[in-house]
Amino acid sequence: MEEQERPTHMPRGPAKRTGPGFLNPAMAPARTRSVMLLADALEHEWLVKEQRPIRALDALCATGVRIRRWRNEIPAELQHRLRITANDLDEFALAWAQTSHEQHPPEQPVEHEPEDDRHGQTSTAVFDNGVHFQRLDARMAMVGAAYQWVDLDPFGSPIQFLDAALQSLSRTGVVEVTATDTAALTGSSPSSQARRYQAKGLVDAYAHDDAVRLLIATVATTAARLDKVVTPLLALFDGHHVRISLLVRTSKSEATAIRKSIGWRVRCKDVPYRFVQHPSPEDLPNASGPLWIGPMWHSDIAGRMTEERALEMCHPTAGDIELARSQGLTWDEEDIEHSAREVRRSVRHIAAAADLMSREHLLLNLDTLPRLAGVGGAPKMEKLIAALIEAGHAAARYPDLEPMLVTDAPFETVVQIVQNARESSD
Questions:
Q1: Parallel, antiparallel, or unpaired: how do β-strands 147-152 and 169-179 relate?
Q2: How far is CA 402 from CA 26, 108, 313, 389, in A?
Q3: Same domain, 135 and 104
């Protein structure tokens, strides 16, 4: 875009909004993971069975980067089962998305026959090479049809869109939600957190994890009011935003039981924290919540999100790059390496941490361990993980900008290993 400068580094925070057709390059990793999750659902059929299609909606598609990546990067043999609707109320942005799709179409053309909508009427949606573009308020777009996949990526908080997004899903579906109001989610802005999320936070080493759990809890309780239950597939704090991907099913009994997965994180003296259903009055000053206290990821699905798979699916081949250069692309070798590095970063550490994040675990910030263990310095992350595994426990690096470790070892075991490592280095 002429109004928006090309990024010259690896962006981590929110880009400056320069007018209509806004594109934030810092969201590229989230888009990569979205491509991989949707492809995984099609390939492994955990969302729909018997080779049935998936109807996917990008409710706030802006310039259409995500929907075009869905159409271009999901393997060609799966594309015939994918029905993509791109929606935005911004006329300029939607025109940009349509023009981009027309001028740079996917290599393999895709055509879809009309299908019945949620009211049993034959859909009038017109697909342009596999994508249906429409200009509606996002809430009207979501409640007007039934989808198995809804992406909700607003500028700021997603609160005002959650009901419509959940109502738009079929009996079983996936909702991916982005929130960039991290000050509210982490507790840096207590008034915004209380007003939007009815929660209380603490700004410490667990603020990022609290933010993710708070957003999951918010969607889970909203879903429960609609007789729906959520299962987290992947949930991350990534730089300037929180991104969660949830499987949503209709089940009154399971929706009623969702309160068992909502609780508080209490900071303690003997361990860094404990999850409790309700904090005591004495614990409340050192507690954050209410939060999601259940599993954060799906072990099998997140476990398949490897760097190798990401590069295979989402990084252009040499032939792709040469073709694009012939059409005006100005990439040099440094740009190619930058692209590959960013694709790898999008999923780094996810597969290794997938099993632990799908069950009970302990999350620790490496920088806080010296104080907690009473030593002068912490061992290197790799050495600490290796020592925990050698001791018979599971351990992995957690994907966060902070040096975070996830393990199933008791806290006292971690402390002992840190102390022993310090003694051996003296």
A1: parallel
A2: 17, 41, 28, 21
A3: yes
